[in-house]
Amino acid sequence: MPRYARLRDVAFSWNMVAAPGYALLVYIFSNLLTEHPASDVGYYFRRSAVRINDILHLGPINAVTTSTLARREQAPWGRIGEELTILISALALVLAVFLVPRFLGRTRVNEPVLRGLAAFFAAPFCYLVVLKLTWRGPSDGSFWLNPLVIIFAAEIVCASILWLVSRRHNLPVWAKAVLYVVHFGIWVPALWMGMPLWIHPLLTPHLVLIGFPLSGIAALFSPPRSRSDASEVKAAGWSLAGIALAIGALVAVWWPGWAHDLTNPRDMHSVTIQVSRGRCFGRCPSYRLTIHYSGRVEFSGDSDERVGQRVVTITRERTGMVSSGQFRQILHELAGIRFFSIEDRAFRWCFDSASVGISISIDGKTKSVVGDASCTGAQSGVQARFVEVADEIDAIVGTNRWICRGPCQN
User: Fold this and answer.
1) Domain spans of the chain?
2) What is the per-residue pLDDT for 238?
3) Mean pLDDT on 326-346
4) HEC readout, 292-351
5) C-beta atoms surrounding 286 within 10 Å
6) pTM of the model
């Protein structure tokens, strides 16, 4: 019996992770496919995948700089980081959900009613919530007429009636089997096809979904918990070790990274900031702007460059000055976006727009970030704020006085 109890608890734990986890993945990949995503969740997911690829020494085919129109190409092995991000996160969360009740000594966290509700309705409910958040249909409330919403509501009503009936009469095994086949025969294909993976073909999201039908089997056909099973969920040292391992794995994958203090450098004279703009298939200025602590500004622009059959003319080398207050303002802006923790390999890219880069050297450390200047992801996301800061630096320096888009006198 303890063996069945452990298997039942594993299935319950997997489903408690798989239900919101699968819905979250649907939300992430829906955002990745949207030109104007509602949130920055795609960036954070890709950042974790990049971190794992770095650990495995699986980098991109080419690096993107503002001196070329080439965009970063995904290597054939680049999806490994995304697969492992999902897999490691799922296993760590399942381990934590499985072990926390044992560490706390709680034995009634997955009684039959809770296990049954979670097994049958947690995944559909979470998926419908995400479907509502990412709904692209008419704004006249037609989401509520979606067949899946109607089916879910009807199943809730039927489940309530069956629960009342089962309190007096036990349902036969064949009836449970029919309910299982009908319910999961509807929802497993619906959830499977609801994952937008045609651009990001991954295997692990569907592995996560397997926990949904398995938990249904455990809830319907496993024996009820006995008193002897309760002894299996007492606190133990290995439970604490397992929880610590799960937390460590999640931190290793999702930790945002350390941000170097930019507002109080040890050696202010060591600070140099550079802003660069790259070409596009159109009329985009291309230049490099270097700002020193002394206040000296050095501008170097590309002249008479033919890009996309259109001539972009920019004056060449110029110099200027900024005050110490303006220099500190620039540092404050960069500190506000946690510049040293930004992972530009998780940024969005288009194929016909200009790029922008910022590089800073401070206290012997150098950090460079390059991103698309137009395809910036979520409106208030990391990439959008990065591009805004680059624009603010240009405004502080007054870069426009050195740029022209017609015949220029250098």
Assistant:
1) 2-254, 268-402
2) 74
3) 93
4) ECCCEEEEEECCCEEECCEEECECCCEEEECCHHHHHHHHHHHHHCCHHHCCHHHCCCCC
5) 21
6) 0.85
